[in-house]
Amino acid sequence: MRNRPTWEYLTAFIGGTAILVLPVLLDHDPLRVPYSNALVPWIRESLEGQKIYSLPLLIPFGVALGIWARASAILLAISTIALFPLYSILDITVKGLAAHIDHGALPLHYAVMLEWLFYGISVLFPLLGIALARFMRRKLAVRT
């Protein structure tokens, strides 16, 4: 199939988005005040209210991707968390840097660097799963 990598990246994006966003949206807290100044409130809520189990869930999802997909492992891993960096770029572009980081605990450039460092670390979870699946697939192929 000629467009297989496109479908693989799209599947990684949709699956990763579901793993990162759905737990926050399904855990309805009546005391939580929605972000009124957010460009896309549900993405901002899922970014700020990240569940402790969401990132580790990207490992078995990465294993499934590693078994099924043939595309680049790094690009598949980046696709799984691409929603958050894309939202960050869109938010900074539309509202400006000062409005993007609204907590004021750190200087703006450090806050953005830490945010993007978090995205970089987040990529390691699905990448670990993809690498594990491909390693096992190679080992099993050698034995048969």
Mean pLDDT: 86
Order of helices and strands: HHHHHHH
Give the termini distance in whole angstroms: 26 Å
- Contiguous helical run count: 7
Question: Measured on Cα atoms, how large is the radius of gyration?
Answer: 17 Å
Q: Please state roughly what percent of the residues sit in beta strands, choosing from under 5%, 5-15%, 15-25%, 25-35%, 35-45% or over 45%.
A: under 5%
**Biggest beta sheet attributes:** none
- Oligomeric state: single chain
Number of strands: 0
Tally the structural domains: 1
Structural class, from secondary structure content? Answer: mainly alpha
Supply database-style keywords.
about 140 residues; mainly alpha; about 75% helix
Task: Characterise the protein shown here.
The protein has 144 residues and is mostly helical. The chain has one domain (4-143). 74% of the residues lie in helices and 0% in strands. It is built from seven helices and no strands. The protein is elongated and about 55 Å long.
Write the layout of secondary structure elements.
Layout lengths: L3 H23 L14 H8 L5 H15 L4 H8 L2 H13 L1 H4 L7 H36 L1
Short summary:
This protein has 144 residues and is mainly α.
